[in-house]
Amino acid sequence: MKRPTIADIAQRAGVSKGAVSYALNGQRGVSEATRRRILAIAEEIGWNPHSAARALSGAAAETIGLALRRPARVLGFEPFYMELISGVEAELSARSQALMLQIVPDADAEIDVYRRWWGERRVDGVLICDLRVSDPRIPVVTDLHLPAIVVGGPEGVGEVPNVWSDDATALVETVEYLAALGHRRIARVAGLPDLWHTRVRAGAFEGACERLDVRWSPTIGTDYSGEEGARATRRLLSGETRPTAVIYDNDVMAVAGLGVAQEMGLTVPGDLSIVAFDDSPLCRLVHPALTALTRDIPAFGALAARQLLTAISGQPVGSVEDTTAKLVPRASTAPPRALVT
Amino acid sequence: MKRPTIADIAQRAGVSKGAVSYALNGQRGVSEATRRRILAIAEEIGWNPHSAARALSGAAAETIGLALRRPARVLGFEPFYMELISGVEAELSARSQALMLQIVPDADAEIDVYRRWWGERRVDGVLICDLRVSDPRIPVVTDLHLPAIVVGGPEGVGEVPNVWSDDATALVETVEYLAALGHRRIARVAGLPDLWHTRVRAGAFEGACERLDVRWSPTIGTDYSGEEGARATRRLLSGETRPTAVIYDNDVMAVAGLGVAQEMGLTVPGDLSIVAFDDSPLCRLVHPALTALTRDIPAFGALAARQLLTAISGQPVGSVEDTTAKLVPRASTAPPRALVT
DNA sequence: TGCGACTGCTGAACCGGATAAGTTGAATCG
DNA sequence: CGATTCAACTTATCCGGTTCAGCAGTCGCA
């Protein structure tokens, strides 16, 4: 009834534990005949290696960790993370690695999780999401010598390699497109201001607006939730100067913004053009369908996982660039009804 | 540089390994003075227990497993799972248990994952989602003596205890509400037909329609994706007999259905009333906001996690009922414009 | 004063594998 | 034919904790 061990196999096969271990691990030191016999017995009695025993003998945990720090309310609704996770998973399960997931309330809790995971040797490395400016997690993982990959962030931040995407170019492309349509009052509803990629996008937005003579280009920071997206939109549309186009930092806020515009009696795209950064099915479900910056998030996650596994294996890894988000024009963008300069 | 072990602590404190172990685990057998000294040293040199070493000495893995079997495309977009996971997490992290997550392509892969996790003693128990009729996973976990809790499913199915919600009553309430508004042609866009809860809902729907004299009540099965929800809606609205109300098995399909209705020139709720089973922010973001059956999914997940931990601790657990989904009327339901019998 | 009980510790075995080092016996070779 | 080499094992040790048996020393009590 109790779980079989290699000692049981050894006894059955009439050899020593050592021989069984060699046989099961494909090491030389046993004859083909014996190996087959041992493998057959292992199969027959349903043997599985005890992961703890392996790990104790210096093996890796074969597990990577992912701690997410966003409130459940936002997490549940934002497709980004689930898509990221499924991409990571795809890469991991192909190499029979496991994923340890934890949702944490704040940065300190996240750091504690890393310390514990690594201290207890539960994971071999971690993926770090939502990089912040002077992020406290970076010195911690560096200090601990915990293999890590930053998911997102600008090109090459600090000592920890990252997987990044050129948000700046994507945003510039978007502003150029809107400007070409004739928009001169473009607002931006941004995400959390202390995230690195928010900062990168802000810089790109300002630069492009200046270059393209978009005179009025306010930015409002939010927490990425639909509620704040709606509130920001309401504020923008209630002011005396109204934008003719709004770029949202994620699709959830863009959809919420669309709702607000409609509720305020504005037509999209006639009175207001809307662009969403990140493109989930959400953008295609609403009417009008939203113009969005599309990226293959699962592929992004898979790339990050691959980099992390390489780092864990001890090879040096540098930062790599993922594909840039592509602008997919849909029904929510058009020239502004009244061209303004 | 190398990670400290209890042997290091023992040496520093001038006691034996055994004494250190007793001290660190709050066991009797050491004096208070010694215990404090040992704890101080452990703290000072940054000691963490090696989870593998603990597990090898018969301790639990302190980890529970969750395998999800839905395509990434659907998973990413459906808020249900992320909300469930955050609920599970909340319960687990409060008891410093970890969550092992894996996304699997099919039932066989899922069963393999369970076998491996349990065989390697990586998890102490698992949560089983999306129970199917004569589900192959049930005999497997029973056979393996792997502690498990089924998330969802009808009341008390088979040997594995579950956490269930009374979908039947919720659906009956919905049909009664629609019938009271005057609807006599109510369609249902269902989820995967071999899931238990789909079957339960189907039975409740048919029963209620019959009782309430809803003569025309077709059901179309889907895979829960927005695409299929849209297709089903298109089919329903293109037939010669049109429904005046549609109940969708999740919110994603309901939103897609709303889009289709609008694209076909129907007004909601004038020409068509829409009700969504499951209520994410999505339902409030679209226009008109969708009437939905609301449940606290994180709480549901937390309850499931709690039950599983109880089962793992060896206490007997039975099936428990979670709260029933509540109908929240919003702008997408109204009396049909032309009352029909 | 002598016995048992208790406290506070030590030493060693143990969990289930990995692996270095040692031991056979047979084949190879000069 | 004896020395060498090699395959095919066995034995022993290790990983880092837990736990049990044992053993001094102290205390209480008859």
Largest sheet of chain A: 6 strands, parallel
With strands numbered from the N-terminus, the spatial order across the biggest sheet of chain A is 2-1-3-4-5-11
**What general form of chain A does the structure show?**
elongated
Largest interface: A-B, 63 and 62 residues
Descriptive account of the structure:
The structure is a homodimer of 341-residue chains. By secondary structure, the first copy, chain A, is α/β, with parallel strands linked by helices. Chain A is 46% helix and 15% strand. Chain A contains 14 helices and 12 strands. Chain A has a 6-stranded parallel β-sheet with strand order 2-1-3-4-5-11, with helices on both faces. In chain A, 51% of the residues are buried. The model of chain A has no long low-confidence stretch (mean pLDDT 92). At the A-B interface, helix 4, helix 5, helix 6, strand 2 and helix 7 of A face helix 4, helix 5, helix 6, strand 2 and helix 7 of B. Chain A binds a DNA duplex (30 and 30 nucleotides) through helix 2 and helix 4.
